[in-house]
Structure formats: structure tokens, C-alpha cells
Amino acid sequence: MVSDTASDVLDGQAESRITVQIDVWATVPDDADNIREQALDAVRKLAPSVISKTQGYDPDSRLSRATLEFQVIA
């Protein structure tokens, strides 16, 4: 979990919007992308919104990163 933002109403807390980040590391960029898509499929039941997909590379480890970030309402 990256963050948790609560919404308040007169009777108390209404909902909580949680931001989740999943990082996938692999030696091949396509492998990282494929695993990221599998992770997204696995969390579909949570009804994710504000979905963001980014890519990166770490030259020290020589690994590619595929990041999935999304929000869910709890």
C-alpha cells in the first residue's frame, strides 16, 4: 500500500481510497510487462481505478521494472 485517503461525512468515515503499487522486476522487459498484466488480472476483483503502468530499468542490477499503480475503495 502506498497511501490511504479517507473521506468523511457527517456520520463519520464514508470510504477509504487506497493506492497500491506493484513492482515487477525481470531480466527481460517483456517478461516484466507480462507478469504486470497477470498481476492486474489478479486484482480485477478489487475493481481498481486510476490505473497507471510505467516502465524502468536499473543499470546496477541490469533488471527491467514494470510498475502497476492503482486505487481501490475500501
UniProtKB/TrEMBL annotation:
One Pfam family, short name: Tail_completion_gp17
UniProt-recorded name of the protein: DUF3168 domain-containing protein
Native species: Escherichia coli
UniProt xrefs under InterPro entries: Gp17-like
High-level lineage: Bacteria, Pseudomonadati, Pseudomonadota, Gammaproteobacteria, Enterobacterales
Highest taxon of the lineage: Bacteria
